Amino acid sequence: MPGMGTFLQTKNPVVVSSFHAALLHQLLLIGLILVLLSLVWNILRTTQYRRSVATGVVPARPGPTLIGAEPIARRVVRIGFGLLWILDALLQLQSAMPLGLPASVLQPSASSSPGWVQHVVHVGVKIWTDHPVQAAASAVWLQLGIGALLLLAPRGRWSRFAGVASMGWGLVVWVFGEAFGGIFGSGASWLFGTPGAVLLYCVAGTLVALPDRAWSSPRLGRLILRGAGAFLIGMAVLQAWPGRGSWQGSSPGTSTGTLTTMVRQMAQTSQPAPLASLVRAFARVDASHGWGVNLVMVILLGALGLAFCTASRRIVWPALCAAVVLCAADWVFVQDLGLFGGVGTDPNSMVPMALVFATGYLAVARVPAPVPVPPEAPAIAHAAPVDSARIGIGATRPWWDRVAPGYLTRSLAAIAAGAVVLVGAVPMAAASVNPNADPILAVAVDGTPNIVNTPAPEFSLVDQDGRPVSLASLRGRTVALTFLDPVCTSDCPIIAQEFRGANGLLGADSNRVVFVAVVANPIYRTTALTVAFDRQEGLEHMRNWMFLTGSVASLEQVWEKYGIEADVLPAGAMVAHSDLAYIIDARGHTREVLSSNPGDGSSSASSSFSVYLADALERVIHA
Amino acid sequence: MKWSQARAPLGGGAGCILALACVLAGCSSSTSDEGGRPSSSPLSVEVPLDATYSSGAGSEAVVPMGRLGDRLNTFWQLFVRAPGTSQWALVTPTGVADNGGLVVSTAESTGADKGEPTATVSLAGFEPSQDLAFSPLASSSDQGRSWSPGLLPAGLAPVPDAVSASLAAGFVALVREGRGTVLTSAGNLSSWSKLATRDAIASSVAGRSCGVGDLSAVALDPTRGVQVGTTCSSSGLVGVFERAGGTWHLVGPRLSPSKPPASTKVLRLLDVGGGRSALVALRTKTHTGLVGLASTEGGVWSTSTLLPLGSGDRIASTGVEPSGAYVVLVSRSNGSLALDIESGPGANWHTLPAPPPGTATVAVGTGDEVDALAVASTRLTDWRLDASAGTWSKIGTVTVPIQFGSSS
Q1: Which residue has the higher pLDDT, A213 or A246?
Q2: Which residues of B touch A222 (CB under 8 A)?
Q3: Which of B25, B95, B190 is opposite residue A184, by nearest beta carbon?
Q4: Stated pTM of the model
Q5: CB of A523 less than 8 A from some CB of B
Q6: What Rg value do the Cα atoms of chain B yield, rounded?
Q7: Shortest Cα distance from B399 to chain A (angstroms)?
Q8: For residue range B5-19, what is the model confidence (pLDDT) as tens digits?
Q9: What is the pLDDT of residue A342?
């Protein structure tokens, strides 16, 4: 009833169970893909083995494009970020993700940013809010697939594709999920995660996507280190800038500093008690010695930045050690590990930052020695005398017979990981272009329809033009019947728009449907009011819309027949009435009864209910 | 990209650009209000819907109650008190949520012999709220004991004199279309016609002489017809307009010809006993304040002294005595309340003892009794002023059954 609005809790059981069901279905699909790939692998390997036994020929490794082992720097960044993506995927499994992410993560990330940033983020928020289950499940598989691809494809095209995928999805998350890492916001600070953890995933992806020759000299390492150094120097300047609340802790007569405020907020996040104690202790230290803490930070960031800029191994190594310690301290005491609260999406920026620093150092310090290119190897290595006629030397051999078994295995594993990415990417892409919200939101608020098959009670009222309308006169068309208060301030205008939206979704079937509202206010019930309501809601030109009214006695009869309460409340409250919708078939039988509670009245909820109602009408029309 | 040809430390350059962007964005000043003190133009002086009206028929008070910091749990209430009694009765019209506000106008006719009111009509209008864009109406002829519904096909202006009722002349309403539009009804609450728009008044000869800004109040007189109050930017003129012969005439006075105010705004406009009564905000070079105006049937205006408004002061409520004099409750910038009352229509202001904390509005009854109505959530407390002692005494409370949560 109006005034008894139902808002979805973050862990609404309907949405959570739908989320889990979607994950299970997609897991089955992935399982099927893995089974198929396993079969293919088995067949190819068996064929390879039989041929090699029959011919005594062992397939050689492919041509000279892969030289030497993978550079350790590349391996560190590839495996490190591969594991991070997998961790992020596991965090996306939290039950609160479908409904909690927009309000708890996406919107707050943009709250201190300019309007245009908020507008961009709102696009992502809208997509997620409209399709919470689809988006949340897709994020799991996307990130799991990217992580697996990075781990399972160490070299070659598949590995570089993994880097590109990491870069691409990371950019999407950085823009829509982190509001550009907060770099346009007023409180940007290295301590709080600037430039955004996911941007570092993009950097890592870019590095992994580079061709092998990029890792063959220390130049890449120097680029990484100098870039990191310049960034840290900039962060030191930002941290030192006056008037941003960085230099104060918390003392009487002054506003609390930004760091103290942030740490206190993080301490309130639901987390293990020992960790909360640590964070609170640091908050107390900063509150008392904010100026000193900030001075230390400025000096450390500046010094580390300068050290990295030298790109000299002897200087960078101790700076790297100090940077890792500083990152760890910030990760624990300021960023609070970033994992808690029910909607933690990643371990924040310090772990990726330390990985990038380490990659830069290793790329300078551990450059792989160049491996001489071997002479052109024969395509076939003979292990035993060969019966030429038997094996048909000179005939073309299939590609799987010409590659090494390990390469075949890794390729199929990479294909499997790529399939996991697609299982995530395709639904996400579909959700992003679908303007209609998922009906799961309406089901979560209103439950599933009651399925009945009983003669609908007759009524005789007048429409907006004063013409008599009875249920019998509507025979031959499906009727969507509801009860609205023409002077309602909240629910009824929303429900009217949902009916209007459902009409739009029906397409050609809208000609077979009439949407009927009956006045649910015993005081304000004249046709002048129904006309005013229609004009307010843009319904005056909707051909198959009727807003019926009548005398108090006739209205009360209809309310009673349809189980509608309409209570006049005192002291400036609106009339409280039931929110129900009846789907009546062309023969005059009630087939479904739906709750039409609009929930929080958001655009997502309204769109969801329109889809929900349209689906119900389609079922009855085509029954 | 050919790494061998890399000329510049691209990584360092990228890091510099990123760092520079962060520094510039982070060091950008916040979008706080800049410049000097906020303008004290009367155009920025707002009059709330909290109001009282007293006449021979009794007193009525419109106050917000509930959780005043939460718009959806603030409900406006209408109380009436019969003459000679001290008990307020809750008579808020039902059937519509009034979170947006409530405006009321009461008209009465007096018997020829005894001078006591013989008939009354009250018109209540609901301000638009949330998704309700037009204003339902209610009328009563028994001082709120029963109401008949009506409809205004637009949203009422958020001013206490947005509606005016007359037993003989029907009703007039000021709605939000454009910068104000005046609608009239002969008596059918669901049938309204457009009388004038702000642009029509502003473009008239009288309107141009006044420099009309927005329409701010309406009143209805059985003989003179519709009167409209406006803001005026022309030196010293008060924007009170009447329509005669198809054109609008400026009937408001010119204030202080020697030291005219820069701009004026009619906050209240009433027809009282055949004359006009207006409460006007004005701004001079040095100060902002309120003046009470009263005119007789002959059209001669008397002007009260100036009631100054300091920077940060806010009008908390206005009230009208049976004589047509105004009582004004001001919330000072330091949070205290100040209560001032005209000695008579268009006469001097004098200050009364500060009312109790929580006072929402003040009513002055037929016996010159002064009542401060204090609101605490669902409870209305009536405090009576002992003028000789300068103290306030509690004389009654009314508990209102607020339906919290009913509008969300």
Answers
A1: A213
A2: 9, 11
A3: B25
A4: 0.83
A5: yes
A6: 25
A7: 10
A8: 444 444 555 566 566
A9: 67
Provide the shortest C-alpha distance from residue B190 to chain A (in Å): 7
How confident is residue A402, by pLDDT bands cut at 50, 70 and 90?
Answer: low
> Closest Cα to residue A354, out of A335, A373, A376, A382?
A335
**Which residues make Cβ contacts (< 8 Å) with residue A46, sequence separation at least 6?**
none
Length reported for chain B: 408
Q: Could you tell me which residue, B398 or B37, shows the higher pLDDT?
A: B398
User: CA dist B233 to B207, B239, B282, Å?
Assistant: 10, 9, 10
Residue A525 CA to residue A128 CA, distance in Å, equals 40
Stronger pLDDT, B156 or B324, i.e. the higher one: B156
How is residue B257 written in tokens? Answer: 């010809």
Tell me the CA distances in angstroms from A501 to A607, A613, A620, B287, one per residue in order: 7, 9, 18, 55
**B154 with B134: CB under 8 angstroms?**
yes
Q: Which residue has the higher pLDDT, A278 or A620?
A: A620
Distance CA B356, CA A60 (A): 97
Question: Quick one: which of A301, A300, A278, A297 has its CA closest to A289?
Answer: A297
Q: CA-CA distance, A518 to A550, in Å (whole number)?
A: 9
Q: Give first-to-last CA distance, chain A, whole Å.
A: 30
Rounded CA gap, A100 and A86, in Å? 21
Q: Does A237 touch chain B (CB under 8 A)?
A: yes
Query: What angle do helix axes A219-240 and A290-310 make, rounded to 10 degrees?
Result: 160
B102 vs A572: CB contact, 8 Å cut-off?
Answer: yes
Place of tokens 């075949």: A408
The encoded tokens of residue B94 equal: 């039902």
**Residues 19 through 58 of chain B touching chain A, CB cutoff 8 Å:** 19-23, 25-28, 30
User: What would the pLDDT profile of B318-345 be if each residue is shown by its tens digit?
Assistant: 999 988 899 999 999 999 999 999 988 8
